[in-house]
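Lab notebook page, bench 4
Experiment: in silico fold of construct C2
Operator: M.H.
Input chain length: 90 residues
Purpose: comparison with the prior construct
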Amino acid sequence: MNQLAKAQITIGLLACFAMAWGLFQQALNATNPTVAFIIAILQLVAIVIISIVLLGLLEWVKIFDLKTNAILTLIVLVTIRISYVIVVKA
């Protein structure tokens, strides 16, 4: 497995763990436990897909090295989630 694939998977999982509490808190607000579980899983899958795409784009542009791109991707994902929570809660 090449370095880019390892970084994409790692950043996706780190982003999931960084946002997991908020995702599950939001999912638990659903009335049906099955729906709550499906919502949480779909959001986590979406985060992993977004991290793979974003890190792939940053590597394609090749402005920074892989470590810097990974950190930027993680910051962007967490910022998107925080802004989503602020907008939805407001």
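Observations: The chain has one domain: 3-89. The helical segments are 3-28, 33-61, 66-89.
Next step: discuss at group meeting.
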